[in-house]
Amino acid sequence: MDKEMSDLLVLYKAVHASVDQMVEGLSEQEWLQKPLPNMNNVASIIEHITLVEQRFLGFLTGKPENIDTGAPFKTDSWNVEKIKMGYSAVAQQVERALNSLTSEELDQHAAKLGIGDVNKRQLVAYLIAHTTHHRGQIPIVKKLNATLSA
């Protein structure tokens, strides 16, 4: 693994660890509570992250899947335990994939996204940026829930 990918793997693990800390100890009710009916809850955010990472994992491994990554935002029912297990499992799968990809493979085309064509190396950076973006929503949801519940 080259230095850039090694750095990205460290960053990926750090982002996931910070999300783990944010949701640690939350009750099922706290996972499911929405600050307002038109807002997201922690469960939908984590499930969305998981689905996007699964989709990107498919691009990285050459086995793309057609996954509706927006599905968690279009429902009103979530299985918190299933979401937790899925989030943990996809993180392990992404780490394994990143450890196994060669420099040559990382320079191969991965996907055409809304931002344009990306190679696998760029896709990894985008995956981390996406997860980081949604990671930033979790403390906002938690704070709004606490404020509006008081």
UniProtKB/TrEMBL annotation:
Domain DinB-like: from-to ranges: 13-138
Which Gene3D superfamilies does the UniProt record give? Answer: dinb family like domain
Q: Where are the transmembrane segments?
A: none
**Which residues are the signal sequence here?**
none
The identity of this protein, by name, is: Damage-inducible protein DinB
Write the lineage as a comma-separated list.
Answer: Bacteria, Bacillati, Bacillota, Bacilli, Bacillales
